[in-house]
Amino acid sequence: MCHLNNIIMNRTEILKTLQEIIVNKNLYRIDNNDNIEEVLAEDVYLYDDLDFDSLDICNLAVALEEHYGVEIDEYELIDADTIGGVVNYLMKTLQIF
């Protein structure tokens, strides 16, 4: 677990935060009837399933930097490919093992 700004984080909390950022920054639109945990599950592909483009990746990187206070490499997000891949990258970047 990681202590960041006196908050203990684990994989589930990072996933939930990532999902909330994607929705709150309008990077992907969730219908009222949709379950965010299902629509933005770990196996969902950023490009193929969510239709992300390079601008979406840049906006996600900025939002993650603002939230976590760490530098986010956009190319690492591109390589992450899925929601779960982004979570893995964040865990590595935030040094959560």
Structural summary, described in words:
With 97 residues, the chain is mainly alpha-helical. The chain has five helices and two strands, in the order ββααααα. It has helices at 11-24, 36-39, 54-68, 74-80, 83-93, and strands spanning 2-4, 7-9. A hairpin with a 2-residue loop joins strand 1 and strand 2. Helix 1 packs across helix 5 (83-93). The chain is globular and about 35 Å long.
Give the key terms:
single chain; mainly alpha; two-stranded antiparallel ribbon; globular
Q: Give the H and E element order.
A: EEHHHHH
Strand content: 5-15%
Distance between the termini: 7 Å
Instruction: Report the count of strand segments.
Output: 2
Sequence of strands across the biggest β-sheet: 1-2
Radius of gyration: 13 Å
Largest sheet: 2 strands, antiparallel
| Spans where pLDDT lies below 50 across 5 or more residues | none
Oligomer: single chain
How many helical stretches? 5
Structural class: mainly alpha
What is the fold's blueprint, element by element?
Elements: E1 2-4, E2 7-9, H1 11-24, H2 36-39, H3 54-68, H4 74-80, H5 83-93
Antiparallel strand pairs: 1-2
Helix pairs in contact: 1-5, 4-5
